[in-house]
Design the sequence.
């Protein structure tokens, strides 16, 4: 893919939000609060690059926007041009509130895959914003204006985007690798459901070999300092499964303890870094002896396939979370069963 030829990268960093981050760094991205009755405790951080104490050479700001039950959508802002790019638009009106408050021009939507919780807002957003570019790799994506191909590069001001086809969860899943030149901070990857904190999305359409190549060769070969912005807040369940796979892994134990504290504080666990994921994410550790022993398989793709099957049937030990307001309304009318776990 040639990603290592880039001499310098830049993406927002946050002090203490992930294991091993430099303690002196401060936020360059903000966490946006949804309606208080639906999601509590999500405070806006890093409202501006200057307020956040970012280096003057950094022009990229990422707004992390929790929506639905456990989804994340993102708004990436090029600070100099005030151009904005959205990733995985599920709730368009919520996104436009933030676009308006930030005073930026939304020009493009990058969609990782066609599932409703990542792409359902595209049609409404395109209606509200004529001329909006809706990009992705799968023709099934709602309101798609142009289909992207693996290795294609885009540019938004100083921000470069490399499109990485990562089949596994779906056959047309695209991840987006972003960086800025002439800036010392690490790059970022918006990985949708291809890679999450301590886990990955269910393999629904592609082969185990394709998924293995997506995780280890495409995403796994990115710079280790790459910040990983995934599509869901599934970290606790993922880490509890990782602990089952590798009960002796101290990195899993430490990350799980940290994630539980984040959950208690109603704070997100994104982003992580690729180097961290290699320490505790079993789906990136298929060559490790404890992981192979757990699955009883030796070939990497077979290990991965066995992990996917085990993860699909894994139940968290924690108590079920309380349903959100939307779910309560549905329960009142008998539309849902028991509350879903995270």
Sequence:
């Amino acid at each position: 893919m040639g990603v290592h030829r880039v001499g310098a990268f830049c993406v927002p960093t946050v002090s203490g939000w992930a294991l091993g981050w430099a303690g002196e760094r401060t936020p360059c991205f903000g966490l946006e609060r949804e309606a208080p009755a639906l999601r509590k405790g999500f405070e806006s951080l890093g409202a501006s690059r200057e307020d956040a104490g970012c280096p003057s050479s950094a022009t990229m700001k990422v707004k992390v926007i929790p929506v639905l039950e456990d989804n994340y959508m993102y708004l990436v802002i090029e600070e100099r041009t005030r151009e904005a790019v959205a990733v995985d638009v599920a709730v368009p009106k919520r996104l436009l509130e933030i676009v308006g408050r930030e005073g930026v021009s939304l020009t493009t939507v990058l969609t990782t895959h066609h599932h409703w919780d990542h792409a359902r807002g595209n049609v409404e957003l395109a209606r509200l914003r004529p001329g909006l570019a809706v990009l992705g790799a799968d023709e099934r994506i709602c309101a798609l204006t142009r289909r992207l191909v693996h290795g294609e590069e885009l540019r938004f001001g100083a921000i470069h985007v490399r499109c990485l086809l990562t089949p596994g969860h779906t056959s047309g899943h695209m991840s987006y690798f972003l960086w800025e030149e002439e800036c010392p901070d690490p790059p970022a990857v918006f990985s949708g459901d291809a890679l999450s904190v301590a886990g990955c999305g269910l393999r629904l359409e592609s082969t185990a070999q394709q998924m293995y190549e997506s995780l280890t060769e495409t995403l796994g070969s990115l710079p280790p300092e790459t910040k990983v912005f995934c599509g869901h807040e599934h970290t606790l369940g993922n880490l509890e499964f990782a602990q089952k796979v590798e009960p002796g892994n101290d990195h899993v134990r430490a990350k799980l303890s940290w994630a539980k504290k984040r959950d208690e504080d109603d704070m997100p666990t994104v982003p992580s870094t690729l180097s961290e994921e290699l320490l505790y994410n079993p789906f990136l550790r298929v060559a490790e002896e404890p992981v192979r022993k757990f699955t009883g398989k030796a070939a990497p793709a077979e290990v991965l396939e066995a992990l996917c099957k085990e993860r699909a049937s894994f139940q968290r030990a924690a108590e079920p979370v309380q349903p959100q307001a939307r779910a309560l309304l549905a329960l009142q009318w008998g539309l849902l069963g028991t509350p879903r776990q995270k």
Summary: Residues 250-264 form the longest helix (15 residues).
